[in-house]
Structure formats: C-alpha cells, structure tokens
Amino acid sequence: MKNRFPDRVAAFTTKSRCLMTPWPYPRWIAHRGAGKLAPENTLAAFRLGAAHGYRMFECDVKLSADGVPFLMHDTSLERTTSGHGIGGDLPWEALSRLDAGSWHSRAYAGEPLASLDNVARYCQRNGYFLNIEIKPTPGLEAQTGNAVADAAARLWEGAAVPPLLTSFQPDALQAARAAQPWLPRGLLLDSLGPDWLETALTLDCVAVVCDHALWDRASVLQTQSAGFRALSYTVNDESAARRLIDLGTDGIITDRVDLFAPTSGA
C-alpha cells in the first residue's frame, strides 16, 4: 500500500524536523493495555486502561501460523492462555478459541486473544493512539516486521496519526521500514551499547525507547539532539516518573494506570 499522506508523514521521517514538529502522541502510555490490572494484551485490558483515562496503549504483536497479527508477549502460550506450545505455530482460528483471561483472575475467564484488526478498530473508533511492539516468534523477525507494517498501513489508512512501531529486533524494524517506510518507528533498548545511536539512525527511527533507569541528562540530550524522542519503559513508581519528567523525556510506559493520572505532570 502506498502512502497517500506524504506531507503528514514527512513530520515523522525527517530527522531535522522531528523536534520542530509537535509530537502527536500522549506522554503517558498504558503498558499492554492496563498493565497488570487486567489480562495483558486483551481488549479487556484496553477498556480498563481507557477507564482510567489513558488514550495511548502499548501492545505486543506477533504472527499466527497463517500470518494473522495478534497480541501476545510470550513466545509460548502457557503463561497467559489456556493453550500449550508456541503461539506462532497455530493458525488464528485455533488461537482465537483460547482463554486468555482465566490466568489473571476469574473475572476475566473466557477473554479471548485479540487480533490487531480488532484492536485497530477499537482504537480508531475511540480516538486512541497505539504503540505496537513487534514481538516476533524467534526466527521470524523480518517476516513479522513486514507483515505488521503492512497490516498497520492497511488498518490506519487515512488516520490522522498512525501507530508507532517499536521493537528490540533491528531486523524486524528494518523489514517494517522496507515495507512501509512512512510509518514511524522506535528502537527498543535494554542497554546503551556503543552503536545504539547509529542503529536508530540507520533504521530511520523517530524514537528511542529505553529501560527508564538508562536515561540520564547526557543520554536524553544526545538522543533529542539527534532528532529522536526519548521514551521509557516500564515506569511504576512516582519517583522514577518525576525524574523522567524532570529530564525532559517524551513518553512514559507504565503498568500503574491506577497510580498515574495521564493528564497530570506526574
């Protein structure tokens, strides 16, 4: 699918303009829908996060055996569903019948896995924003990045603000870039190695998303001076949130949708 909004997309993809163009996403982002208060990566979690006032959500997306993008963090099914084995080894029809809520609590028994199609409809109907973490089954990094980007382009065609695609896997982000270069991308990091900035530049990212403890004044300045937004995961206490706000970071991913009011400064 070709990008039909070149002027709008230029604001995301041109580094020199990134900081001059208003960042379209909210500062506060609900992790996996509602953190730990509901079964992660389900529509029930999205609804609970929204009930707490959140307008942007993070979720993990991988591919079923027949190529359907669906929400799940783990490679295996056991922790968060009634299934067994590798999630990506099953077709969507089988995955859609699994119970993805009982593991969390009886109140959510029978909650199904969510497809990216369903989540996209929910977000767009309600004016919500989405951060899609591309979470490939090992060995399917490029295939997953390609398919998720194509699905996002189709599902958000004509939307004012597309989803932010992020991943720890550079191969997945590179495939997403090749498939749909206009979609904004962010590099997820659990350490600041010697080539992290070069990797983000090579992938033409708009954001760097770090473990919150990695940010300090120097790394935030380095990131923003290079034209990237600085986002953090997973921030669950007030002192950490206040430190990140004082550092001037741009986004905070949290489990504690019950603790942080997303319209406040802390």
Can you characterise this structure?
Helix content is 33%, strand content 16%. The protein is an alpha/beta fold and 266 residues long. A nine-stranded mixed beta sheet has the order 1-9-8-7-6-5-4-2-3. β5, α7 (170-179) and β6 (185-189) form a beta-alpha-beta unit. The relative contact order is 0.15. Mean pLDDT is 93; it is low at 1-11 and 13-20.
Q: Biggest sheet: strands side by side, in what order?
A: 1-9-8-7-6-5-4-2-3
Number of helices: 10
**CATH homologous superfamily title:** Phosphatidylinositol (PI) phosphodiesterase
CATH architecture: Alpha-Beta Barrel
Average of per-residue pLDDT values: 93
Strand tally, please? 9
CATH topology type = TIM Barrel
CATH C-level class is Alpha Beta
Beta-strand content: 15-25%
Q: Tell me the structural class.
A: alpha/beta
Provide a brief overview of the structure.
The protein has 266 residues and is an alpha/beta fold.
Distinctive features:
266 residues, TIM Barrel, 9-stranded mixed β-sheet, 10 helices, 16% strand, globular
Topology:
Blueprint: H1 6-13, H2 15-18, E1 28-30, H3 43-51, E2 56-63, E3 69-71, H4 92-95, H5 116-126, E4 129-134, H6 141-155, E5 164-167, H7 170-179, E6 185-189, H8 196-202, E7 207-211, H9 217-225, E8 229-233, H10 238-247, E9 251-254
Parallel strand pairs: 1-9, 2-4, 4-5, 5-6, 6-7, 7-8, 8-9
Antiparallel strand pairs: 2-3
